[in-house]
Write a structure and sequence with these properties.
Number of domains: 3
Distance between the termini: 50 Å
Number of helices: 4
Order of helices and strands: HEEHEEEHEHEEE
């Protein structure tokens, strides 16, 4: 009986040593492979059309009498509003802002030799989802010259802003494309190094960026996202 107990005890000890050895082997293997990894980047880009536009229609009016200037502004504002309405812009998409008036005679260090005292800047803002219509109007805005209205198109403080608002609609698909591109890069690296791609160790998603495609077509946007993925190598 005592011999059997010793035999079972030795058997259990031997089995324990085998298990410990196996676990130790796996631990050493994991340790040796801990630095076997590849970090890759996946890119997804696409072009989209802006679905909102903010167009400041700007002109200036000069004179020496404020009452006369006010009347001129009222008349020209109505002409511009009628022009926009006739072109298909909705009344609720047109906002007439208060005019900014500068008294040149009271400007510090001013030596006014312009022949007029007051300079008024009028801004009528068009906030519309009809982007194509606004682009067309920008190309034909010289039609207002017939009404003695010269729009200011070179004032840097009043840029036209084209906006893309449907980013959430395309986010999932673009992230999927970027992640797929990252895995393809990792698989190419693994094949070149005679390894296999393992599990994802970490992944981060860069911010989405929306930029003009170029300076000539700001209504067309380039959407871009980058994902960074780290895979283990087996």
């Amino acid at each position: 009986m005592e011999n059997k107990s010793k035999m079972y005890c030795g058997l259990f000890i031997g089995l324990g040593l085998v298990v410990m050895g196996a676990l130790l082997y796996l631990a050493i293997s994991d340790f040796k492979n801990a630095d076997r990894k590849v970090s890759v980047r996946g890119l997804s880009e696409r072009e989209v059309e802006a679905d909102m536009v903010l167009w400041p229609v700007v002109y200036t009016q000069t004179g020496n009498d404020l009452q006369t200037i006010y009347q001129e502004l009222e008349s020209k504002n109505q002409i511009i509003k009628n022009y926009l309405l006739k072109a298909g812009i909705s009344p609720d998409e047109i906002l007439v802002n208060s005019a900014s008036i500068i008294d040149l005679d009271t400007e510090r260090y001013s030596t006014n030799q312009k022949g007029y005292r007051y300079l008024a800047t009028q801004v009528i803002t068009v906030n519309s989802s009809n982007v194509a219509k606004v682009v067309q109007l920008q190309q034909t805005q010289n039609d207002l010259l017939r009404s003695n209205i010269a729009l200011q198109t070179d004032m840097y403080q009043y840029p036209t802003n084209f906006i893309f608002t449907r980013l959430n609609d395309i986010k999932p698909e673009m992230i999927e494309q970027a992640t797929k591109a990252a895995r393809e890069s990792a698989e190419k690296f693994a094949a070149d190094s005679k390894s296999n791609i393992g599990k994802i160790r970490s992944a981060t998603q860069g911010q989405f960026s929306i930029e003009d495609r170029d300076q000539y077509t700001p209504q067309i946007k380039k959407v871009r996202v980058v994902t960074y993925v780290e895979y283990s190598l087996d």
